[in-house]
Specification:
Blueprint: E1 9-11, E2 27-30, H1 36-39, E3 44-53, E4 56-63, E5 74-78, E6 82-83, E7 87-89, H2 90-99
Antiparallel strand pairs: 1-7, 2-3, 2-6, 3-4, 4-5
C-alpha cells in the first residue's frame, strides 16, 4: 500500500475564464507552462496584484519551486500570461466555491 495520499482531481469550471484580476491566494500557472504538473493544481500562488495598467494587471506570484535551481521563487507575471490550471484538487475547488 502506498504512503502517498490519494487526491481526487476535478475539472476546473473557471479554467477558460480569463477575466482579471485573480484574487490573492489563487492557484495559477504561467501560459508557457504547458505540462501535466501545471495543469493539475497550478505551479504558483498569487500574493499581490497591481493595476490595472490599461487592460492588464501585474501579479506577484510565488512558485511552488524555483524555475531553475538558485532562482527566486517570487516574480511578477503579466495578466495576459497568467492562467488558471485546468484541474484542481477537490479540496481546492471546495475552498474556491466557498469564497465566490
Amino acid at each position: 500500500m502506498s504512503d502517498t495520499p490519494q487526491v481526487e482531481w476535478v475539472e476546473n469550471p473557471l479554467a477558460d475564464d480569463y477575466r482579471h484580476p485573480f484574487a490573492p491566494g489563487s492557484r495559477v500557472r504561467h501560459a508557457g507552462e504547458q505540462y501535466e504538473e501545471a495543469e493539475y493544481g497550478g505551479t504558483a500562488t498569487i500574493l499581490e496584484i497591481k493595476g490595472p495598467f490599461g487592460h492588464s494587471w501585474e501579479y506577484l506570484v510565488e512558485r511552488d519551486k524555483p524555475l531553475l535551481p538558485g532562482m527566486d521563487r517570487q516574480s511578477w507575471w503579466a495578466s495576459h500570461t497568467t492562467r488558471r490550471p485546468l484541474w484542481l484538487s477537490a479540496s481546492v475547488k471546495g475552498a474556491i466555491s466557498a469564497n465566490e
